[in-house]
Design a protein that fits this description.
Blueprint lengths: L28 H21 L8 H14 L1 H8 L5 H10 L2 E2 H22 L3 H20 L2 E2 L10
Parallel strand pairs: 1-2
Length: about 160
């Protein structure tokens, strides 16, 4: 029988790694609580962005990681070791790039959600144009980001 205290490792998950050396806590305890709250809000907005084409996921997750790096060692470690969010965050931290798979998934899902929204559900022409401009701008931004050949693990979330 395997000891529960040992790190379990599967093909999709790597062992827990400590990132506390990257955390620089702010001295003010009230400000740390504010940053922890802001990080939670950013993560929630990033999660909502998975389903809403107008709300980007990646910037909110990166903001959340930055806030946790100044406010909570525990939450920063949890985010960096997360099965889906950790790999792209670590890749971004190391190389300031995203994988081809992540780019294709992000642009494809955005097109899959924005095109029907613009064509079928938005009645106001000005809003249609605005949504199209936002979609094209985000797509151009993603295309212009540096690219790595392959992603580490299930990194298509971001």
């Amino acid at each position: 029988m395997e000891n529960q205290d040992t790190a379990k490792t599967t093909a999709r998950q790597r062992p827990w790694q400590d990132y506390s050396h990257e955390v620089q806590l702010i001295r003010s305890r009230p400000l740390r609580y504010v940053l922890i709250g802001a990080s939670a809000v950013f993560l929630l907005l990033g999660f909502i962005g998975l389903f809403l084409p107008v709300l980007p996921t990646t910037p909110f997750v990166l903001l959340s990681a930055a806030c946790y790096a100044r406010s909570s060692t525990r939450f920063y470690n949890m985010l960096m070791n997360h099965v889906w969010l950790g790999p792209p965050l670590r890749q971004w931290k190391v190389s300031r790039s995203i994988s081809v798979k992540t780019k294709v998934m992000a642009i494809g899902l955005m097109a899959l959600t924005m095109v029907p929204t613009i064509v079928f559900w938005v009645p106001v022409p000005a809003v249609k144009v605005g949504l199209a401009v936002i979609g094209l701008s985000v797509s151009i931004f993603l295309i212009r980001l540096p690219t790595t050949g392959t992603g580490e693990g299930p990194s298509s979330v971001l």
